[in-house]
Amino acid sequence: MRQLKYLLVVLGLILPGMAFAHGPSRQKVTVTAEVAADPAEVWSVIGNFHDMSWHPAVFETQGEGGNDLESVRVLVLGEAGGPTITESLYKYDADKMSYSYYIDDVAVEVLPVTNYSSHLTVKPRDGGGSLIEWRGAFYRGYPNNDPPAELNDEAAIAGVTAIYDAGMAALVERFGAP
Amino acid sequence: MTRVWLRSWNALAHRKSRTGTLVALMTLVATQLAAGDFAYVTNQNSQELSILDLDARTETARISIPGKPAGVAVDLKGHVFTVSPDSKVVRRLDAAGTILAAAQLDGGPIGVAYDARQNLIFVSDWYNARIWVMDAETLQTLQVLETGSAPAGLTVSEDGQWLASADRDSDQVSIFDLATLDLHLRPTVGARPFGLRFAPDGRLFVANVGTNDMTVLDPVSGEVLGTVKTGERPYGVAFALGRAFVTNQYGDSVSVIDLATLETITTIDVGEYPEGIDTTSDGATIVVANWFSNTVSLIDAATLEVVGEIETADGPRAFGTFIQQRN
């Protein structure tokens, strides 16, 4: 019991530090999709920060605050009681059909990244329809040197890309290819 | 569906929207900007150094720098120092980009600063709370200084008296006396300081990523002279015409602060994830590296407008002093 307490004390001291630290090299990912629907229609579906139901991996979007800055959402993944990602809105521009957010809290087992920020934007596509652009900037999940394979730069890029790809595939299915 | 590693789309989008202004200003600026300055921009993602002719506004060379380079410093003799945290290598190049010397370190080297008086460079170790003191010529390590946790940015005061490090995970800066390399003070600043620089008037400006503000310090007494609100995630700071210019990494902008009043004058939109920032030798232009957009933005320090953009390689960070005047 005493050992457990000691362990908790040590973890309590170390974990906040780990949450701050990050790897040496920030990564970037951009995924785009072209759809047949016009930008206003696409934005009406994906432009609400508190409704991520368009993404197949998201079971539920919790939280409130609408599209006001510093509004916080909790994405429940997969099923009720599934893993969560907590995110904060830091830019919202309805005219430009774009919003930006960062992850406040996610387990690296769920998404192997730290210091993650992201932008989602809808633009008119040349020749009609919309161009949807989703981009992320982040560090790998392991903040120190010599990361294990599941927490290295490549794993971080693969994890984010997989989320974006899944979301975009669902949007193309929903709105049709142009 | 196509997946694009940024470069193309974003750079194009930016250029498209500004073409009109750019063309109109081209001739005007060409006459204003004739300082013979070059920018040496470390591109972390593509592992290259972009050499930019700031007068001609073109990239004149792209040099392979393995190991994900971030930190950069220039000296007075036409040399450029780069720091690659992944491979832990510090390099010295000449103005044309030829690699003249390299030193293998360990830990997590990231930031670098140059001391002209003693011909030394200083390199921060992100993982081991220390600074390497190195001979700028041979790149031999002469001494190691102890800092707080996760030192990132380094800066040398213009009078050559002080060296300071932003100790990110200790929420402090370490100030060293350059004459003796002894620790002078460890003042507390805002949360997670990453970039910092001495102003021409000797005050130390520290950008705090965690509190979205900048701490202004007297390096002699360690007294906090002021705290200035910035945009989201302030990263780097440079000075021109009595103003401080701070890159707001998440704001895609540069905050302009009056050095006399410490009031914010305006906020200028630049590219995405602006990071490194420096001033041309004539003090007329501020150059900002846009990490996501793969460009640098040129800001007229007098009119506070973006007057041009130059493309770089992928992931420009330019973390340090990166503008050098060639004769």
UniProtKB/TrEMBL annotation, chain A:
Cleaved signal peptide residues: 1-21
Organism: Puniceibacterium antarcticum
Alphabetized Pfam families for the sequence: Polyketide_cyc2 (PF10604)
UniProt entry keywords in alphabetical sequence: Signal
Protein name: Uncharacterized protein
Xref: CDD domains: PYR_PYL_RCAR_like
